[in-house]
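Q: Got a minute? One more chain.
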Amino acid sequence: MAETGRIRVAKDKAELVKALTSADGATGPFQTFADVIVFAAALGAKHNKRVPLGEISKREPSPIRLEYFATMGHDWVIKLLGITETKDIKILSLHEEEHEHQRNQIFEEYANGGLEILQNELRGAVDYSERILLILSSEKFNIEQQEEEFDLTKFLS
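A: Always. Here it is, folded:
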């Protein structure tokens, strides 16, 4: 179960999360671990990929305090994924510790799923920023292509 007040990272994804940040002289596309986790959770949710964490990273990145996500304005992603997954507004309750555990776990598992996708997509890449831009561009292109397609089936009766 998720530790109250912290978002955890799977140990097998810790190196990837560190590599995706620009901290400590690294050249990753994200400024903080929290930014990486939020992006990964959104990617995991988009691809409906929710993966349990397994072993937790104890060192860098250690579990990230929820206040940090709130300060950066990312806490709404945690709440939105909770509502979307459970279809229950009660998940937003600030007075029920169990709801917070559930929200955090859903967010962590989507982030872990997104990190798994990134691990596969970034394999062999030298410049993570460039590869992530390509991923985002291809997603945008796929959406635009789907919107432009003309469906003739509605004329068949």
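A: DSSP finds six helices and two strands in the chain.
Q: Perfect, thanks.
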